[in-house]
Write a structure and sequence with these properties.
Number of helices: 26
Shape: globular
Largest sheet: 8 strands, mixed
CATH architecture of the largest domain: 3-Layer(aba) Sandwich
Helix content: 25-40%
Number of strands: 34
Structural class: alpha/beta
CATH class of the largest domain: Alpha Beta
Distance between the termini: 23 Å
């Protein structure tokens, strides 16, 4: 059977941060916590609320019971970020003309910032004066770690409607700043009336929840130097104008008229107006205006059934005792509005009765008109959907071609078309929502996901435009005085990732709830790549500053590995390069033959015995230094050799192989080598490389260095020249930058690129993402069986035949796990090699392979087959850390097949009562391609499969076969159950 294995490189596998959120049970707190969990943060919360139900089941969320006025307990981790949301209501609502008196909790958290232990964000109401912040940062040391978030009226789907003062007759003047809009929404939904104070002259700062969350994330995860951040979606509006918007939207979404009333004393003449906040001062671009936000919010509450019917509304207290009717206090114009509303209602009743009397004579024509309108409405819906799909495909095609303006325009059109189709489909399908609500909801979710995914493309394009401009500055030697902005593209890429992740979630919900699954999956595939690309682009822009040195000099050693001659670290190191940055600018890129510096090594270093046995090597050089299956070990060795051979240090090591270069050529096009009068393509790379670098080579020959040096320089020149030619005015680039980004992402994921760095930020990211290829990976400890029984497999090969036969070698891997009567583990690994070489002539020939297999610690080998060899003594068994290594030589003659079989017991038992899970991690060898991998899982009679990788497609099976490949690391987590 075909089965999709877990991808070891999850798109959410960001460097974890520990976050503390106070008042986490609030609407903002829950929304912020969910967004941070999506960013792979570990979130701790203080507070309680029914809204926390979904969060409590999240693995990376912990609810704490703390007295924040006291020092934080020692057992808690160090928090990178602290969001004190309680401060919105508890610390800043007093008169600000006096010196603020912070609560003990706020004072305690501010002291954390002053001590530099955590970056602390205090949430304050919109009326907070800047003098408050000046008071808070009396100590200059706290300025770097303390920031004030000024919040407007936060609202959106899922907001709390539990405002005790939201009922009729409440006085808005007594309400806390930042709650006017939520209270008006609550009134509209719960009572069917909107009650204003102060003649509706109070200022409201609408702040839609997604805009607020994006702004908080942006300021939290960037180096923004602003100490005060405003969280609003648009310029202020009077509460009266907001009430009119609420009435208009309620009329469309809730299908009812809302009464408009006033209460409280009349406003004081000459009251000093509140200061306005300009949108261009925000530091981010809000996306949701009030009308759109109200529609989304009312649609949410309408679908949840919380909107009161007319009968329920009438049960609320009459406004005669709790508030003033419009006619008693409003200006004539406002009274006229209320009267018109009442008159319109009366006219509607009269017209309805009149229509019922005159309907029959015109029945036929009326039906025809209705059908015609319905047909046109349906046709327009279908057209909108078609335009949405067509435009997003055009946008992505233009993006891959480097036409950013066209791509952005098409993406915006696509989002608008999907949104228009969504609005129409809700009306068309409303009669069926009671009959088949899940299917209707499925269609709505799919269209909403398509609209969201389209707009994520817009953010991605904006990020790409700015980042290419930054790369122009970095790569140009004539722009030393020009500054580049990495924060803006990073923020855009992060927003693109957030929106595309949301689109993926909507698509998944749509598939599980309704029909048209294949159609939804087709639309989903149009967007799914952007989630991973956006994450990769965000990571790249986030670390670019550290990579180029931020003013310091940086030098990186590049190892060019030929994986047609496979080695444990990826391939034989035939060439090396140096990339140098100085003052934030690219200074130089050089490529050399490895033998040019290996000849300078004076110290004799003993090689591994296998190299001596098969190749006759009596001393080790940099070219053979990648002997370990752990790349971090290899880079330490390579740096040591480079220092011994040249006397110079480097700041990091990057290894790439020919498969990466081949993939890159397939995406960005061929390279013209003028000196060779050759065009090198993805199809002829290996053939021409072997011809020019090896045929006719002799000791001291420079032809290998010349060819690969010319190839590398031409490849780099093509990229840099196209970056330099990027037209900032026309927003066009001849470089397919997205293809380049895809190649880098695929290379890292499939281990054709590996890297280690000295810089702690770069090193942490590389280690967290397993780009430094440790053995075993950082994210999987084979010895940790606390919550599941863990199994591990890694295969490492070294071609010691002095040829390039790996290009002609086929490898099929079959792994069988049998669970015994006592839930014990017996493994059988079969590797089938097929050597397709047709002659012994170089570069083909016999495959001489030193094979090492890494399995869990203390595994007991009791069966072995390697052609005629069947004695386990032919296998060298050693232990290294928490792994056991099985090593032997395997030789595969030309035009032949060889099977190698290892059978061994793993000293573990599945804990059926406490942890009935088996988890296999298969680690790919660097430099290999998509080797076939088949996993067979056998159970005794009393056990059965419950789920595989969280899916129940294989439930109740006793024997399971999963076919996959090793294009990347694979994981299989199987939950067991007793029959």
């Amino acid at each position: 059977m075909e089965f999709s294995a877990l991808d070891h490189q999850s798109s959410k596998d960001l460097l974890k941060k520990n976050i503390l959120i106070t008042d986490v049970g609030s609407y903002l707190g829950v929304s912020l916590a969910k967004s941070l969990l999506l960013e792979n943060c570990t979130v701790y919360g203080v507070g309680n609320s029914p809204l926390l139900t979904d969060l409590l089941i999240k693995e990376d969320f912990t609810l704490l019971e703390l007295d924040l006025a006291q020092p934080l307990p020692a057992h808690l981790p160090n928090f990178d970020l602290i969001f004190h949301l309680n401060s919105l209501y508890n610390d800043f609502h007093q008169e600000l003309s006096t010196i603020p008196h912070l609560s003990p909790a706020a004072s305690n958290l501010v002291s954390f910032a002053k001590a530099g232990k955590s970056k602390v964000f205090l949430l304050a109401p919109i009326s907070t004066d800047e003098q408050v912040y000046e008071y808070l940062i009396r100590d200059p040391d706290s300025q770097k770690f303390l920031k004030l978030l000024i919040a407007g009226d936060i609202y959106g789907p899922g907001m709390s409607l539990d405002f005790r003062d939201s009922t009729i007759g409440a006085s808005l003047s007594s309400k806390r700043a930042g709650t006017i809009l939520p209270i008006l929404i609550s009134q509209a939904i719960k009572t069917g009336k909107v009650i204003l104070d102060n003649e509706g002259l109070d200022l409201v700062y609408p702040a839609y929840i997604s805009d607020v969350i994006f702004a908080i994330n942006r300021v939290a995860f960037s180096d923004d130097s602003k100490n005060i951040q405003f969280l609003v979606s648009e310029s202020p509006k009077t509460s009266l104008s907001v009430a009119y918007e609420i009435q208009k939207v309620a009329r469309i979404i809730l299908k009812k008229e809302l009464g408009l009333f006033f209460t409280g004393a009349k406003p004081t003449i000459g009251k000093e107006p509140e200061s306005e906040i300009k949108i261009h001062d925000l530091g981010f671009s809000p996306k949701v205006e009030l009308e759109e936000g109200l529609k989304t919010t009312f649609e949410y509450f309408s679908n949840t059934g919380l909107v009161k019917t007319s009968a329920e509304i009438e049960s609320y207290p009459d406004t005669k005792n709790t508030g003033r009717n419009l006619s008693s206090l409003l200006s004539p114009q406002v009274v006229q509005v209320a009267s018109q509303t009442k008159d319109q209602h009366s006219r509607q009743i009269i017209l309805a009765r009149f229509s019922s009397l005159s309907f029959r004579p015109r029945l036929k024509s009326s039906i025809l008109v209705i059908l015609a309108v319905l047909f046109l409405f349906t046709a327009k819906t279908i057209l909108d959907f078609y335009l949405g799909v067509t435009n997003i495909k055009s946008a992505q095609a233009a993006l891959y071609q480097g036409d950013f303006d066209k791509a952005k325009f098409k993406a915006q059109k696509s989002s608008s078309s999907f949104k228009a189709a969504s609005n129409k489909i809700k009306i068309l399908l409303s009669p069926f929502s009671m009959v088949s609500p899940q299917r209707v909801e499925s269609i709505n979710l799919a269209l909403e996901g398509a609209s969201t995914g389209s707009y994520s493309t817009v953010y991605f394009i904006e990020g790409s435009q700015q980042f290419l401009t930054d790369l122009q500055i970095i790569a140009s030697k004539d722009s030393k005085n020009e500054n580049f902005d990495l924060e803006t593209p990073a923020a855009n890429f992060k927003r693109a990732y957030f929106e595309s992740s949301l689109a993926q979630k909507l698509f998944n919900e749509a598939k599980t709830q309704g029909i048209f699954k294949s159609k939804i999956e087709s639309i989903e595939k149009t967007f799914e790549n952007f989630t991973n690309l956006s994450l990769s682009a965000f990571e790249l822009t986030s670390v670019t500053g550290d990579l180029i040195g931020n003013g310091d000099q940086k030098t990186y050693l590049i190892l060019l590995q030929n994986n047609t001659e496979i080695r444990p670290g990826g391939g034989f190191i035939g060439n090396f390069g140096l990339v140098q940055f100085e003052n934030g600018r690219l200074k130089n890129i050089d490529v050399e033959d490895i033998y040019t510096i290996d000849g300078q090594l004076k110290e004799k270093i003993e090689p591994p015995k296998e190299l001596t046995q098969k190749l006759g090597i009596d001393r080790l050089y940099l070219r053979d230094s990648n002997w370990s299956a752990d790349f971090a070990v290899n880079t330490a060795t390579a740096r040591d050799f480079y220092k011994k051979e040249t006397g110079r240090d480097v700041n990091g090591v990057i290894a790439i192989d020919l498969s990466f270069i081949q993939n890159l050529l397939s995406k960005i096009g061929p390279i013209k080598l003028e000196d060779y009068k050759e065009e090198i393509t993805a199809d002829n790379l290996f053939q021409r490389g072997e011809y020019y670098s090896e045929v006719g080579s002799f000791p001291g020959s420079t032809q290998k260095r010349d060819f690969f040096g010319a190839l590398s320089r031409s490849l780099v020149a093509k990229v840099l020249d196209n970056i330099a030619q990027f037209d900032k005015n026309q927003q066009k680039s001849t470089l397919p930058s997205i293809a380049l980004l895809e190649s880098i992402r695929e290379g890292l994921l499939e281990k054709h690129i590996m890297l280690t760095f000295d810089n702690p930020n770069l090193s942490s990211l590389a280690h967290t993402k397993n780009w430094d290829h440790p053995l075993p990976p950082m994210t999987f400890n084979p010895a940790d069986d606390s919550s599941q029984t863990r199994d591990f497999l890694a295969i490492s090969e070294a071609n010691l035949g002095a040829n390039k036969v790996n290009r002609l070698l086929q490898r099929n891997i079959d792994y069988q796990m049998t669970i015994g009567r006592d839930a014990d583990l017996v493994a059988k690994l079969k590797i089938v090699y097929t050597n397709n070489s047709q002659a012994e002539t170089w570069p083909a020939g016999k495959y001489v392979n030193f094979l090492r297999v890494y399995v869990p610690f203390a595994a007991d080998l009791f069966g072995f087959e390697n052609g005629d060899k069947k004695d386990v003594k032919d296998v060298e068994v050693t232990t290294n850390g928490n792994l056991t290594t099985l090593a032997t030589f395997v030789e595969v003659p030309i035009k032949s097949t060889r099977e190698v079989i290892f059978t061994y017991r793993i000293p573990k038992n599945i804990k059926l009562e406490k942890a009935p899970f088996y988890h296999l991690y298969v680690q790919k060898q660097p430099g290999t391609d998509k080797d076939s991998f088949e996993f067979t899982f056998n159970l005794p009679d009393y056990l059965t499969v419950k789920s595989v990788n969280g899916q129940n497609d294989s439930a109740n099976k006793q024997n399971l076969t999963i076919r996959s490949d090793l294009a990347q690391d694979r994981q299989f987590e199987i939950e067991l159950a007793k029959k």
